[in-house]
Amino acid sequence: MRIMVNNKKAQVKVQQMAFMIIGLTIFFVLVGLFILSFAFSDLKQSKALLDEQEATLLVQKLANSPEFSCGAAFGTVKSNCVDLDKVWALKEKIEDYSEFWDINGIEIIKIYPSSSQECTNSNFPDCAYLTVLESKKLGIDKSTFVSLCRKESDGRRIYDKCEIGKLVVRFSNE
């Protein structure tokens, strides 16, 4: 009889130990899940910040790309200078570049002197904004201030006429 009682007590002790191990495992799994969820929420914020920084850098890189930038003449390099003559020519062939930059839209807005009409063949360059790549999707707009330069002639010489503008690029928010 005594051996049976000890066996039952031993079985109860083994069951208690098994339940404790299961309970501790569940507790540590829950703590681990809480820590992971906290870490991943910080990761999402970091990704959003990195995406925004990448978009800002891409806008500046686009402004200084050969397709947009004012050419270097006599050893001078102009940073954040957009050649409107180049962009006007690029607008006709923009389908070739639409996949190249991985963006949804490009627009150039003249800040000074101000106007209110979109650039067309009849009013270029006396217009307010030029849509280089039509935006077909919703997204986030990033912009940078640029010098908008083009070649002009006063009859005796050809010179660069520059105005203040903004290059606006639309990115996918996916």
List the helices and strands and how they pair.
Elements: H1 2-63, E1 81-83, H2 84-92, E2 105-112, E3 129-133, E4 140-153, E5 158-171
Parallel strand pairs: 1-4
Antiparallel strand pairs: 2-3, 2-5, 4-5
Brief digest:
The protein is α+β, with helices and mostly antiparallel strands.
Structure commentary:
The chain has 174 residues and is an alpha+beta fold. It has one domain (1-174). The protein is 41% helix and 25% strand. The chain contains 2 helices and 5 strands, in the order αβαββββ. A 5-stranded mixed beta sheet has the order 1-4-5-2-3. A hairpin with a 4-residue loop joins strand 4 and strand 5. The protein is rod-shaped and about 115 Å long.
Proportion of strand residues = 25-35%
**Helix amount:** 40-55%
Number of helices: 2
Largest sheet: 5 strands, mixed
Please, what is the average pLDDT?
A: 82
Spatial arrangement of strands, main beta sheet: 1-4-5-2-3
How many domain units? Answer: 1
| SS-based class | alpha+beta
What is the CA-atom radius of gyration, in angstroms? 32 Å
The H-and-E topology, N to C, reads as HEHEEEE
Shape annotation: rod-shaped
- Taking the alpha carbons of the first and last residues, their distance comes to 73 Å
User: How many distinct beta strands?
Assistant: 5
Q: Segments where pLDDT lies below 50 for 5+ residues?
A: none
